[in-house]
Protein 1
Amino acid sequence: MGHDTQFQAKSKKQYEYDRHHNAVHMRKQVVNFAIMIFLTFLAFAVVVADFSAYFIKPVILLLAGVQVVLQLYSFMHMDDKKASHMGVISTFVWFGAVIAFTMFLTFLTIIWW
Amino acid sequence: MSSAAVTNNKGFGATLWDYLTTVDHKKLGVMYLFAGTLFFAIAGFEALLMRLQLMIPNNDFVSAGTFNELLTMHGTTMLFLAATPLLFGFMNAVVPLQIGARDVAFPFLNSLGFWLFFLGAIFLHLSFFLGGAPDAGWTNYASLALYSPGHGIDFYVLGLQISGAGTLISGINFIVTIITMRAPGMTFMRMPLFTWTTLITSALITFAFPPLTVGLFLMLVDRMFDANFFDHTMGGNTIIWEHLFWIFGHPEVYILVLPAFGLFSEIIPVFARKRLFGYSSMVFATILIGFLGFMVWAHHMFTTGLGATANAIFAVATMAIAVPTGMKVFNWIMTIWGGSVKVTVPMLYALGFIPSFVAGGVTGVMQAAAPLDYQLHDSYFIVAHFHYVIVGGIVTAIFGSMHFYWPIMFNRALSEKLGVWTFWIFFIGFHCTFFIQHFLGLMGMPRRVFTYQADQGWDLFNFISSIGAILMAIGVVLLVINIIITAKSKPLNCRDYWGDGRSLEWAIKTPVPFYNFKQTPLVRGYDPYWLEKHDGNKEGMIYAEPLGDIHMPNNSILPLVMSIGMFVAAFGALYHPDGKAWAIPVLILGLAITVGAMIVRSVKDDLGFHVHVEEIVATEEHLYGNGGNK
């Protein structure tokens, strides 16, 4: 398959479209980056503010969960629906997460010491 | 390379070099098949020794220690080093042809996977000559393994770590191959069932082997560097090993049995001469089995005291697996039902498989009932159950598929007559050996004992069981004789040997050229070859592209070098706790070899080569005579 590679010069329209597309993409990237920094700051803030441990632990875990999702979908491009085999990739990532979670659950619940 | 394919007269050295460096999925398939058969024979021989020991009460044919080594190596070898590579052999040989691909997605990694598996296996077996084999059972429970003297367990840990890495690499390779390299028109719901089960199996490998790797690594540091993960006296917990092992171990069972299901799903429609009944439900059932396979591991540990709630949850989840499995069984029966059945050797194995596997499944559901499992646990009932599943399900699939796919893999056909004899002797031997073990278990005989007292009512049943084992051994020897005789027979040079092939692999004329299809085929529906035959297309397929240059990967010796590096490093790690001065240098040397080969691989561009149209035409004429593959 694909014996020849074709090269094509970009038209003006295409160039402008790409520029706009890249700008939108970059804006999204920066916004998500800011959110990440803010969430990290929050995590540190609750610790420094010296709240009860029963408050700090779930909040930090929640923030971590949000950051994982952001990381996967924004910075690792899982939100890019048009990329090839994105469905397969999501399936594998989330199936792996489910399995890892059952192990986590097991080690916390049914292993006695 | 391409000219080498045209000229056949190569010396021994050149042929050997070709096999050491090959990245061709067909050759690697053959190598997997022979390596798997070798370890199958070794592990089978170990089983025979065990059955001879248990033939009569108070026997002293082998000592208790040797018996422990035999049972451990039998289980470990059969599962990791015989069944897995034999199935990988078929996956390699068949799947790329079934989906109309030139090779797997990463041919280099395919070769690396094989060599890691092979050298890991050799390393494990060297333990017999270097102070004793592992002796804590194939499950290697930490409470036993940590206190096993000598290096047996270290061989187990390091050998499985290396061969497990090979399996993991191959699994990932097949996922990528099946998802990205299907021929145009081969949608997911047109993929043959064997391709589907290979995909799901590879996914299971990807998710199941990491827990094993972690478990083995913890065991390694526990034994070699005095860590205390599993030592309860130091605040560790021996149950953690059991969980890690079975989180891997239960999916491993499905890793083995799903390809077997796939192989039978190929064999049955061909010889029933009917479309596979309920294709989409078969696919759905495969996915469901794969998913549920991860949710049931604790049913191996009902008696460790997980508590009633956990036991109940895992019992119900385990029983749920019977539903998709039952769907599959009914679909196979419905495929045969009303078909114009040709009872060839592969079909015989398929017909033998269905009742045997169902028997294994039924005892499985019995054990899933946690209260009953307290009675059955660690008895011969368990041994009978998993041998019904593994021999009745997987070994029959492997033997049947050897007959089924031999024409594609070797361009020769195994003798039907000898095959029928093999089948009956093996099949009768199998039931003779294991059926009676159910009752031995119910009568209270524990598993993994090296001998037993006379007059407990076990004598006759053990004797019958051992006779059965001898019959099975005769069956296997007949199969090997069949293979040797066949090697001398005339090449077939035909397409669709069985006359009723349905999927793409039968559309190609044997011997299969190293680039597989000269033009990528176009798939117009499920069972593409059958569709084309039905439409009167003599060539068996229509093409998705004009005849053009084919891009193929270069051979490489680097996978073997990398694997040898790991092999050497394993010796260093093994002897380090003995305080040998050379241990650390050997470890470093081994890792340096591996890393060096990886650097060479990364730095040196290897873009493969093109087979030009003239060479393709010449190869086709050489293989198939004037006019090429028409």
Note: Residues 82-113 of chain A form one domain.
Protein 2
Amino acid sequence: MFYRLSGVHHANYVSDSRIFKVPADRNLAIFVFLFGLAAPFLLPSLYLNSYMLPWLIWTAAALGLNLVTGWAGQLHLGYAAVMAVGAYSAIHAARFGVPWEFALIIGGLASSVIGSLFAFAALRVKGLYLALTTLAMQFVMDWVLTHSPAISGGSHASLQSPTLALLGQDITSDTGYYYVAFGWCLLVTIFMLNLKRTGLGRALVAVREKDFAAAILGVNSFYYKILAFAASSFIAGVSGALLVATFFFLAAPEQFSVAVSIQVLAMVIVGGLGSIIGSYLGVALILLVPGLVNGIVAGGSQSLGMQINVETLAHIPNAVYGALIVIILLIEPLGLGKLYGNIRDYLMVWPFDQLRK
Amino acid sequence: MTNRQTAISTSEGAILECRGIERRFGGIVAVTGVDLVIQPQEIFGLVGPNGSGKTTLTNAITGFYPPNVGTIRLAGEDITGTAPHKVAKLGVARTFQNLALFNGMSVLDNILLGRHIHMNPGIFHTAFYWLTAKREEIENRKIVEEVIEFLQLESIRHELVDGLPIGLKKRVELARALVAEPQMLILDEPMAGMNQEEKGYMSRFILDARAERGVSVLLIEHHMDVIIGICDRMLALNYGEMIASGIPKEVVKDPRVIEAYVGGSHG
């Protein structure tokens, strides 16, 4: 049903290497794209700004982390620090008078350089040791940010972001911010979709799965690990800069603290390592579900006439959201992306599922 | 040692030439004084009991454990101590005794990885797929498809390698090695755990690979019938040392080889 494979024939290699081989997948992607494009006209600006926009930017950031953790298999607990480098570099560049287009690229490149330093740790240590090393680097970054007024912007440790302007247009409206986020997320998504079907993606998976076997095929794992960190850090840097420029408007160290690093990692793991749609779903769960549960609990208690005190009200969403993460990972350790894949695979053969291998 | 002379033979135009290879791990001498010359388009057998140093020798050639003493030349070029990924670029491909396919990837992607050294993957190729990578991917796909057809893997090309039976996995690994278009192909026990029919298929594939693709093969095997059947020459190792070399039919009659394998049958 829906995802029908019969009648789908690939008569040449170009057609067989399409991103979406099943028509239903392509139609779904087009629908989501059109919905994203039309969102400013469909959704009230409150939803657009406080839900859709952060969702898109965090998805771009999570996809960047997925590149290094999901594809190249390197645990990274200092991702927020890398985002901070990009955010602060871009904003300082913009404040200095550099056009925003270049400021964003400067932010991305600065992140790439710092992020590649993490890669040198990854070449020496693996697994939990790498997690700890990257965590240590996150703390170093935090310390540097909070202790150098020149970077973090004086005694209040906050840095005003100048007005965003792209292609000569000042961007000040909610719709404008949304489209910037949408465009960036789209670019990152296309990159990741291409990664799935090119030699770079295969080489990264090879390094993740068996580095000795990768070596005998001519894959230099040293080079590809650095490449993965550099590319993912670039995405992190630009995402961090856009987050400040379109959402926070004010850069502060706690926006990129260690808790944020863990949150992005949670988004990637709940969504599914190596899954693109999973990153979208994972970010939605981590970012949007707490607010949603909050609304449901508050609304429910009101309509039932129950008196719930403020403290309980604040704790229930956290408990529900924590339980949701545990339940999802128990049902499917490979995350929401795999869960979606299971449903899709089931529908593909329904109602003839007895024919499934 | 008279037998050693035949293994050395002439090194003129040899594809692979190992001289006096020694590799130690701490106090253990895994391989010592091994000379090996493989001529172009030769299928060369390497046998020996478990722990006799066969895999250590291949690891020395492919750069995982560079030899402590000795030199290795590939088509005249000294490759002693070269990193594995560079050895691969110079035209050495190998399969592993315990299989080294990448789980979670399809058969096709696994084999495409064999084309890595002929491709130019990078960030910009991926970002601007339609400009550059598309053509490259398609061209390499064509070459991969030739090998898929050659090894009769068409029906499973889109399946994940994780669940395949071992005979097919070994064949996928051979395909991955072949698409790299190597000069020298090292097969580490490609028929371990196979039945007679599968062994027959695999032997035929190795012979065809030489006939159609002109590769030279270093074949590690425990199945003596295969070694006698398809190898031009062979070398027997025991405790890291050469005990016999030459034409397979003669080597397997060598009392030292028989002693090493079955333990003093000539008593």
Note: Chain B has eleven helices and ten strands.
Protein 3
Amino acid sequence: MSTVSIPEVQTDKGFLPRQTKLLLGAFVILGAIGFIVFNSLAGNQQYFMTLSEMRAKGDLAARESVRVGGNLVPNSTKIDTKAVTAQFTLTDGQNNVLPVYYKGILPDTFEKSTQVIAEGKLDQNGVFQASLVLAKCPSKYDPSQIDWHSSADPGNLNYSTGTGN
Amino acid sequence: MAILGSISIFVALVVAVYTTFAAVIGARKRIPELIGSARNGILAYTALMTIAIGIIVIALYTHDFSIALVANSTSRELQTIYTITALWSSQAGSLLFWSWILSLYSAVVVLRKWDRDRELMPYVIATLMALQTFFAFMLAFISSPFARWWAVGNNTVMALFPPAGAQLFVPADGQGLNPLLQNPAMAMHPPMLYLGYVGFTVPFAFAMAALITGRLGPEWLRTTRRWTIAPWMFLSIGLLLGGRWAYDVLGWGGYWGWDPVENAALMPWLVGTAFLHSVMVQERKGMLKVWNIGLIIITFSLVLFGTFLTRSGIITSVHSFTESDIGIWFLTFIAGVTLAATMLLFTRLKDLKSERDIDSLLSRESLFLLNNLLFVGAAFAVLWGTIYPLFSEMVMGTKLTVGPPYFNQVAAPIFGTVLLVMAIIPLVGWGGATGAKLLRKLVLPAAISVVFAVVIFALGVRDIVPLAGYFLATLVIVSTVSELIQGTLARAKNTHEFFPIAMRGLIERNRRRYGGYLIHIGVAMLAIGIIGSQVYATDTTRALKQGDSMEIRGYTLTYESLSPNFPSGEGQITSATLGVFRDGKRIATLSPSRGFYPSSGETATTPAILSTPQEDLYVIIGGWENNFATVTFRAYVNPLVFWLWFGGFFMVVSTLIAAWPDEREEARVRVEGLARQAARA
């Protein structure tokens, strides 16, 4: 390092040595950050459930907001663009199904997505009232999911022929 | 061509292994020829990776669907620019891109710094190439960019080498690129992020070389100074572009969702910011040596973790576009690198004693220390929230998640304190200041900021959090600007220069310091934008018939016309025209649109935005009734978002000013280098 000496500034008149104060200060700050983290965590964590867990612990989902993940049942989506609501059904591939009602606009990736995450509460009728819907990555972009032979002609792609909703 | 490409990757793997060993053995046995050969190894690796990536780019450009990467992520209708940028939308392509950028950086390092850091260089090369060995291995065996589709009976299989009895399968057209990625910001976002990510490898390699050689003085810091600020700048640009992409494309009116993938890019930026500041303390005062090496190790580990998180989809995430089997390899690699680096640090602990103690609690160095604690604390808080679902599932057996409320609640106090530190740091010198002196300097900026806060209060902002935030951001701007003005006035008095010229002279004389101050001003503007848009955004959704209107915060939006299903690129675009009225006067026309992409069956919403410094009016098409009888629009008003982008831009330009080569400093370093060589001779 250079040999320029920095003038000593003595501001320290307390009974604790400066280094101890510094260390103490650092611990106070880290402690404060730790406190904020755990405090915020306690107030904001949500259960992430599968459909079978939802069936087992339905009362929990009725009491507090939870997240639930499942596969979208094909052609179960009904969108009312006028009222801006959507209904769809999730399944876990076994016997569990969950009807979901959502007031809002579904994400762009929704229609072709297979996995969906919904956040909200279960109502008395067993319908999941979602306040947030996330569509998980469309399988189209996962190379292992590409099925080149799904059309009659193996050399051609199978275009789906939807026209939007 | 694909054969040539995969051969280059296999040869590159061999070169990487050879170079690593040549560099280490050359340095240990003191064989200059071997070290020279290692240097050529770096250049050879760069050439080989350039060939590989060149072949892929040509294949993308010419629609060579015999290569799976091209078939999986492009199509004939895709616009040319996006056929090229599709490179980094695939996993193999992005790994190749990572390795290629690192090879370019490495080549620059050995070509430019060869004479300056002779002792460190062999181990810098060894570290870089040991890391490259991993990437070349992944590219050669696990995730090859030159894999092809093979037809085996009724199935198609993606593989580099043909499975038994398989025939090459070349699809007539590709699968197309995810429409959400067909956006200019998204085309530029990954390269910027990667330039940043990969750039941090260079200071990491120098830190490792310093640990191995025991040359733990300020040389490695001085050499890597610009290698730290440049990646930090690219990472900043990458984060801003990512936010801009989300704002322009995802159509939910926001720019940041605390998604794991976003957090993955934010964490290395946070720790990198801490590192950027604490190296200055070591250069100036010879303190924080262990801390600095620790920070660069953490930054680099987070970079690898970020690459891994984006590429593996281990944590359920809305935009983890690629999922695959590289996870376990990457995790092992990250654990290995972090462990090795940390162990190396521990063996050198006794050589990393501070040259002096902190003189004063109220000094620039202790405020830098505070800044470091805050940034590392913030990174920890973000990391904890990001991996919490995994952690809770493993430890408690139930999966618990935390969303944006957790992150916002944690971020507000930490970054509020960061703003406070930023406000007082220009007023506190190295070595120390007295509280009385600081208070005297702070009176004017504080008074101005209080007046500003009172005005905002009078305008209707009544919540304590945004009021405090605005007050602190204003305090940062006023105190920094007043420091700049005072410095300029002092200079103008001596040199009799015109004010703007004097200011330019002042900044040029100490680019790092004043460039840093300008960055702080940018950050404060950015903070104002974030506070305004996070706290005071509103939205309304309405289904409208042609000619109908909707109201939002003083704006009247009239739905005037519609152009349904217009063919464009891979998709068909439906766009609407809305007249925007305020106080009865037409002020703008907005055209939100919604694209439908038949090849993937997907939709992509494009918002129309009327942006002013005061607020953004942001409109999307939410959907329509079957015959377009009504169209549903969702409108958002996001106050002050403009300042987020403008502040970000200001920050990046200021970083350029801070990092711009300074002839005087270059000369000083050259002289020091010569002196060191003379001392050895």
Note: Chain B touches chain A through 100 residues (CB under 8 Å).
Protein 4
Amino acid sequence: MRIRVVDLGLVSPVRSQTVYHAVGYAFRSDAPPTILLVSTTDPYVSIGYHQDAEREVDLEYCRQAGLPVIRREVGGGAVYLDHNQVFTQWIFPRELVPVRVEDRFAWYVRPLVETYRQWGIEATWRPINDIHVRGRKIGGTGAASIGDAEILVGSLMLDFDTKQMARVLKVASEKMRDKVFQSLEEYMTTMRRELGTMPDRDQVVHTYLEQCSAALGAELEFGELTPEEEAVAAELDARFASEEWLYQKGGLRESGIKIHTDVRLHEAALKVPGGLIRVIVRTHGGRIDDVSLSGDFTLLPALGLAAIEQAVRGLSTRREELAVRIREVYRALGLQSPGVTAEDFAQAIAQAAHSAI
Amino acid sequence: MQDERVRVYRGCILPLDLLYDVEHDVWVRLEGEQARLGMTDPAQTRAGKLVAIRFKRPGTVVERGRALATIESGKWVGPFPAPFRCEILETNQSGFERDILLANRDPYGEGWLLLVRPLAPEQLDDLLPGEEAFQRYRQRIDELGLTCFRCAE
């Protein structure tokens, strides 16, 4: 099998997204499977196909910061991207791609994982579509059926700006933003972080292509885009930059901010007679990893809140289990909270966590 | 499942009272002048748990093979294709709002996707009835090495 490889180097933000869609839309049955390698000249925010831009992204901040927000036809969440990622985009005919989505990701991720390993980074595939290094994510992947082609996209994560990532998301409170940032720091990694130094793009790409060739048993041929692919990309540049495309209504989606496959952040509020309980929950593998409680209720002594937060860590997200533990804290510390019960806290946490898993 | 009105192969359930577009993995239930459409059990298995769905608006006319809705599952995005030229009458938006895993849990029942009006009667002839579809699916399931399971469970 021969595979066309097109390394476009640095291109504009919108082109770094439209190019693989264009190769997909222009795909004909006699076209070769293609691997595109591309990075963006300038930072931008990429949002998932079914996301609602206004709900997920701080558009006002992005406008002020001059960050384009670009919807892709691939799933997943909003992500801040810059020149420190090399996007690895595969456009393949349907018959060459594993049928089940999970198998497809395993197949696509292998050369990425092997590349990291060649560089001495202990990467593993974390189904369905994450790559992890000792529990930290080093990049996600996505897939789509576009035109007659099957598309898989991911990246070689040379580096990643967690601060900007946390900044561009729309969140209900700065406290939540801090949690997002902390969680990204805790649960994400990059080649730079693992190696202690920034790797050279060309060398990483070289390793990656060797691994692609080995994994696919294919001969790689460097090529260029065809005039037709260029033309479709130019059309898509305009469409993807349009307000109509950006502001289309989001589809029905599960909620919560996914940090990686096992880790999600979610916030919720519960109105009870004693006031409003606000809760930010981070779950890890379905268990409570971190909780932050606030609101306009009264709880005495005040340190009780931190004690509750501490006590529920590691518990399952079942309301009854949470309630038992929180009642223990109430008893041990003699907590008083007019109009707010231990069960209310349990319910608020469980409510948030369940919609977050 | 022992029900005589369904066929099961490698865990994949195919009710016999439906029509199928095997290529597009869509089931069709004719209801008078209208048709109800959904993902087959093999289709929901291949896709995995749904995380999002966006329907085209009622009133839209969609050509055969083009998307009536887009589906997202485990970061794969793809079309739910029209098995024939049709006009969208109703979508199961409210069902999926309640439970995004509806098609994973109950692909032939509550997990239906759209109610449409067929606009090309001759294209309906290309649909396969249950038993015939089952034979084709057996072959396809073998080729794909597929074993169906309800992803939501």
Note: Residues 220 and 242 of chain A are 36 Å apart (CA to CA).
